[in-house]
Amino acid sequence: MRNNLKVQRAIKNLTQAQLAKKIGVSRQTINAIESQNYVPSTKLALLISKEFNLSVNEIFTLDERDIKKEMISVASTNGYSFR
């Protein structure tokens, strides 16, 4: 999942630590989201979007690879496979 969280923080002149404090997570969580090492929960994505007064889709986007990866994961969890 791609995001423009770092850009949005810069626009509001917020550090990772300041944003983290506002939404109740650690600075490391913000860093992991920005570096695309962590996909936030729906709740966290909503909290972030609310903080910037933007929709979730304006901050987070799925690319085609993400969608295919998720479909394969769900299918394999349910006993299906793709060929």
Architecture overview:
This protein has a two-stranded antiparallel ribbon. The chain has helices spanning 5-11, 16-23, 27-34, 42-52, 56-59, 64-77; strands spanning 2-3, 60-61. With 83 residues, it is mainly alpha-helical. The longest helix has 14 residues, at 64-77. It has one domain (2-77): 434 Repressor (Amino-terminal Domain) (Orthogonal Bundle), CATH 1.10.260.40. It is built from six helices and two strands. Helices cover 63% and strands 5% of the residues. Helix 2 packs across helix 3.
CATH superfamily: lambda repressor-like DNA-binding domains
Large-scale geometry: elongated
Q: What fold name stands as the CATH topology? A: 434 Repressor (Amino-terminal Domain)
Give the total of beta strands: 2
Largest sheet properties: 2 strands, antiparallel
Helix content: 55-70%
Radius of gyration, in Å, reads 15 Å
Summed up, the helix count is 6
Number of domains: 1
Q: What topology, given as strand order, has the largest sheet? A: 1-2
Strand content: under 5%
Summed over residues and divided by their number, the pLDDT gives a mean of 91
The H-and-E topology, N to C, reads as: EHHHHHEH
CATH class, named Mainly Alpha
- Give unreliable regions as ranges: none
CATH architecture: Orthogonal Bundle
- Structural class call reads mainly alpha
N-end to C-end Cα span: 24 Å
Summarize the structure.
The protein has 83 residues and is mainly α. The protein has helices at 5-11, 16-23, 27-34, 42-52, 56-59, 64-77, and strands at 2-3, 60-61.
Please give the structural blueprint.
Elements (H helix, E strand, L loop, with lengths): L1 E2 L1 H7 L4 H8 L3 H8 L7 H11 L3 H4 E2 L2 H14 L6
Antiparallel strand pairs: 1-2
Helix pairs in contact: 2-3
